[in-house]
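Subject: sequence -> structure tokens, single chain

Hey, anyone have a minute? Need the predicted structure for the following. Not urgent.
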Amino acid sequence: MKSEATKKLKPEVLDVSMEELLSIVGRARVALSSAEHEMLMAAINTLGMLMEEVKKKGTSISRLQALLFGARTEKTRNIVGKNKKDAESPVESKDSQCGKVPGHGRMGAAAYTGAEIKIVSHSSLHSGECCPGCAQGKVYPLLDPAKLVRITGMSPLGATIWECERLRCNLCGEVFTAKAPKEVGDQKYDETATAMVGLLKYGAGLPFNRLEKLQAGMGIPLPATTQWEIVRKGACDLEPAFEELVRYAAQGEVLHNDDTTAKILELTGAQREAAAADSETENRTGVFTTGIVSICGSKRVALFFTGTKHAGENLEDLLSKRAIELSPPIQMCDALPANTAGNFETIVANCNSHARRRFVDVADNSPEECRYVLEIFSDLYKYDDETKTQRLSPLERLEYHQTHSGPRIEQLKVWMQQQLDEHVVEPNSGLGDAIKYLNKHWQKLTLFLRVAGAPLDNNICERAIKKVIQHRKNSLFFKTKNGARVGDIFMSLIHTAELSKINPFDYLVTLLRKHTEVARSPENWMPWNYQQTL
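Reply:
Had a minute. Here:
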């Protein structure tokens, strides 16, 4: 139980309006001097202004809470609750209908595509023999055998020691050593070791020092400095494939781009010295990692570039490799100027997820208004999912959105204008800012209603950049520009393989083992055609 002193220290929270406070001060005026009354009025006015600012800045506080404690899910029903229609007729999920708990994690044998398969024959029966059950028919194998899965643990990197016998003549002293088997090779570290270290470091965000401790505990030591030398050499062999990815991505019909902060110790130190020497210098002291996802028909390419350039400047470098005869691509990004900085021509679309999130952030202050907007966004995404389910062509998708999403977008436009014209919403409030953002970027946010192939959002690039953020969270920084370049090469190849739904480990191993052929004709060793080349 709390002590009496603790209870006294905790103030009682009262729901009092400004009108009630001013009325109390007015009645108490007779007992106060002019100076005391002015001081009390100033305090009351300060309290009122503070309350309004806290309400208006609630969005920033919510964003800070999300950063510190994790963001809640942004599904509409979790933000503003179920609407009346959903509440009156709740729909049970398939999992609840069949009694299964969602997210149970059970997977069938078919999901283990990388597992070793061992055939187990029947101990007493063979195909074509007499059935022991009825003693009349004959037994034959079924097409679908019974499958059992056994998961075992192992070290990320293994090692094999070959002990080659040595014989020495007891007379002349000459030593004869057994010839090593072919699989030993001439390098201590196999290509699979390079691929695994690169995948753990740049694909899973596992720092070198953690892998060093893990390997030491497994009895197969692998120092962090050795890991770096392995991936540095591997990046040189992988670079031709990376450069071909860059060339291929430049020809895409849709280009998603965004960036996030990064840290290069070598680069940042030099720039800070320059900035300190001359406060007027134009040298940029920030370091960024740009993520670009290019959509080329059914193929997707993910690229990462770390340095002082913003996303728009890296996109300019990429588009300099674009074929002259191609028309300008669609560029999907958020509305930050850094994403379009550069001398290039694109058809710019803005991200509807960013626009929607502005209403999510102020939903606590304006639940009904935000419900209306969020339900319209829900319909837009529902219609877009239907175009994917039906596998519509870009032109068919455009017509579908014009028919179904167009009326909902028009309703949203009319509603927003009404809120501002009739002064239902304060322009400087959080909801007013969200509406003004939509109005300001309306043409770019609704490009999917006018241009075939224009996406709704930049989510695919946001997911790609999570790989960079995961690496930054664990490794904190790159030491040199060359280290950042190595990371960009591995991350680009790994994530492009993941987008192509192939095994990134197998892909890296193939590129490393065939690096001579890759350097000669890299276009034949892309994630979508390397298996045919093999």
